[in-house]
Amino acid sequence: xxxxxxVDQGGCILDMSHLNLESLNLDTVGDERRRVTQQxxxxxxxxxxxxxxxxxxxxxxxxxxxxxxxxxxCEDIQRLSNLKTFIAKNNRLNEFSFxxxxxxxxxxxxxxxxxxxxxxxxxxxxxxxLKYLSLGGNRLKAIPAEIGNxxxxxxxxxxxxxxxxxxxELANLRGLRYLxxxxxxxxxxxxxxxxxxSLRCLSLHNNLLTYLPREILSLVHLQELSLRGNPLVVRFxxxxxxDPPSLLELAGxxxxxxxxxxxxxxxxxxxxxxxxxxxxxPNPKCTGVYFDSxxxxxxxxxxxxxxxxxxxxxxxxxxxxxxxxxxxxSDAESEDERCVSADRLxxxxxx
Length: 351
Description:
Blueprint: E1 3-6, E2 12-15, H1 31-36, E3 37-41, E4 62-64, E5 85-87, E6 109-111, E7 132-134, E8 155-157, E9 178-180, E10 201-203, E11 224-226, H2 231-238, H3 247-257, H4 269-276, E12 279-280, E13 289-290, E14 295-303, E15 307-315, H5 335-338, E16 346-347
C-alpha cells in the first residue's frame, strides 16, 4: 500500500508510514516517480534492515525512517547525493552503523535521537554542511573535541545522555544558536563557551552544575538559559536558614539603627571593633543593620530582560522585604530599588 501526494513546491512525497512493514522493496516503483520523489516517509514500521532500494531515489532530499528497528545502514546510502534531511529516531543504531563514506554526504539535518549511540560517529564529524544535529536520548558519555570542526552547526541537541563534561572546543562553533545539554551529568561549564556569540538558547537543566562562569553573562544574544534541577539552584533555594541574633548583636543593632553616640574610650576595644563591622540592610526601605545574623535570600532575576539567574543578597531579618523585583526595570520600583549598590547584591554563580 502506498500513499502518494504532490506538494506545492513541485516536488513529490511518497508516504509509506504506519503500514507495519517488516521489509520493503521499492524496485517496482516507476522510474518517473523515483526521479521526482523528494520526500520519503517510512516511519512507524517494523523494518530491521535499511531498504537498499531507497537509494534508487536520486532526487531524495528528506528521508524519515524513525520508529523502526534498524541496526545498520547500507553502503549505497551515499548514492543519495541530494539528501539534506535524514531522520532516524528511535531505532537501534550505534556508532558502528554507518558506512565509511557517510561523512562525505551533503546532509544539513540529522536527527538520530532515541538510538543506542555511546559515541558520536566519526562520520558525523566530517559532515561539513551539517547545521542541525540531534542525538538526544542516547548513551553518549562524552562530546568529542572534534565537534568544534563542524563550524556550520547552528543547533546541537545532546539532551538525555550520560555526558559529564563539555569540551572547550565547542566554542569554535561561532554560528551555534541552540545548545541543548539538559538531563546529563555535566558538572561544569567551560568559560570558553562565551565565544559562542550567536547563542540564543542554552539548556543546562537537570545536570550536576554547582557553579557557572561569570563570563556567561557576556552572551548578549542569549534569550533563554535553563538551569533548573541543578545543585546551583536547588541547594541555594533549600539553604535559606536564619539563625536568630545573639544578645550582643541585638544590642549592636540597637546602637547602630538608633544612631546612639558612643566614644571609643567608653567601650572595650573588642566591642568598638564589633560595632564597626555593621552591615547595612540592602533593602532601601529598611534602616536596619546586621552583624553575623542575616537572611540569605534567593531571587530569580530577569537579566537584561532576557533570562533568569539566581541572585543572592543578605537581609537583616525574615520580615524585611526583598529589595529585588523579578523585573529590575519595573515601573513600580523606586529609583533606590533599581540602584542597589553592587557590594550589597551578590550574584550567586558558585555553589
